[in-house]
Design brief:
- The chain has about 325 residues and is α/β, with parallel strands linked by helices.
- It folds into two domains: about 5-205, 3-Layer(aba) Sandwich (Rossmann fold); about 210-310, Orthogonal Bundle (Helicase, Ruva Protein, domain 3), CATH 1.10.8.100.
- Helix content is about 40%, strand content about 15%.
- The strands form two sheets. The protein has a seven-stranded mixed sheet with strand order 4-3-2-5-6-9-7.
- Helix 3 (about 60-65) links the parallel strand 2 and strand 3.
- The relative contact order is 0.10.
Length: about 325
């Protein structure tokens, strides 16, 4: 049993961290224990855990303690060689499956239930985008524990700071219930990054099909809008976040094509009626002033009038 610092020192004795891969290795066992506790693995059986970016193996070692299957994806050949030596028995027994490759390009193994990872910060957004596609085709994935840059974590969680609201917050919140874990200083890593980090727990949910949202929309005589529509409207609005919604959405968003039922000839009528159906002065709002439920209702109104004009013609 090694400490986090010992594993880092073993690896760094023969290798150097690659800045291009965002390699900052955890050397604080308290952080590793916090990740484990946040994942609640002591309460779980028969999980299939995906770890992304294994580094010297401190987190890998802790995950294997849970006696669940661990699949590790690592892009660095030297790290793979190191992990193969440190965890030779675990690999031979099948408790640890090591995959050498880029997690953004690989087809992930089936049946992943949890993702637990200290990821390179530069892949945070594309990784969440890939996960958003996976969850609609795989019901097994239920929990993710990530270590993100503090600023990125706040953009996901938002909390009371509405200035952090953006398309990332909306996209993640539709699929996941978000909880912040501990804040982690640069001193917990080797080499030390220039920023603080934050643990984030994502717990799977289907917000649009929740009883709360369905009851709310039913009270307005509206149907559930598509995720595509919500993302298109919010992305377009936040792309010019200082402008009022009525100015930003005057033109039809490029992501809403005629094949999605949005005829450009009807857009002005659709959006004007959608604005009128919302609360007073809604069209004068800026995107950061809207709650998640506002985006859902507004998108449902747009969808309602799209269908109305589609049927009329």
């Amino acid at each position: 049993m090694y400490t986090s610092r010992q594993l880092a020192e073993i690896f760094l004795a023969s290798s150097s961290p690659k800045r291009s891969l965002g390699q900052n290795f955890i050397i604080d066992d308290k952080v590793i224990n916090s990740i484990y506790e946040l994942a609640q693995l002591e309460k779980k059986n028969n999980c299939k855990i995906l770890e992304i970016g294994l580094g010297p193996g401190a987190l890998t070692q802790k995950l294997l303690e849970s006696e669940n299957k661990v699949v590790g994806v690592e892009i660095d050949n030297l790290v793979c060689k190191h992990i193969s030596q440190i965890f030779r028995k675990e690999i031979e027994s099948g408790n640890l499956e090591l995959i050498n490759g880029d997690v953004l390009d690989l087809k992930w193994p089936n049946g992943i239930t949890d993702i637990i990872a200290n990821i390179p910060y530069q892949i945070s957004s594309p990784l969440l985008e890939k996960i958003s596609h996976i969850v609609y085709n795989d019901n097994n994935l239920k929990n993710c524990i990530f270590m993100f840059q503090e600023e990125f974590a706040q953009r996901i969680y938002v909390g009371k700071f509405i200035s952090n609201r953006g398309p990332l917050w909306i996209s993640v919140s539709l699929d996941w219930d978000i909880t912040l874990g501990i804040k982690i200083p640069p001193s917990s890593f080797m080499p030390q990054p220039k920023v603080h980090s934050r643990l984030v727990h994502l717990k799977r949910r289907d917000l649009l099909n929740s009883e709360k949202v369905k009851s709310f929309l039913k009270s307005k005589n509206l149907k559930t809008p598509s995720v595509r529509l919500i993302k298109a409207i919010s992305f377009t609005s936040f792309n010019q976040r200082r402008k009022k919604l009525r100015n930003t959405l005057r033109r039809q968003p490029t992501k809403l094509k005629i094949r999605h039922g949005f005829n450009p000839k009807d857009w002005e009528k659709i959006i004007n009626n959608a604005f009128l159906s919302m609360r007073e002065f809604f069209s004068d709002c800026r995107p950061e002033e809207l709650s998640l439920m506002d985006w859902i209702e507004f998108s449902a109104q747009i969808d309602h009038f799209k269908n109305f004009y589609q049927t009329s013609t």
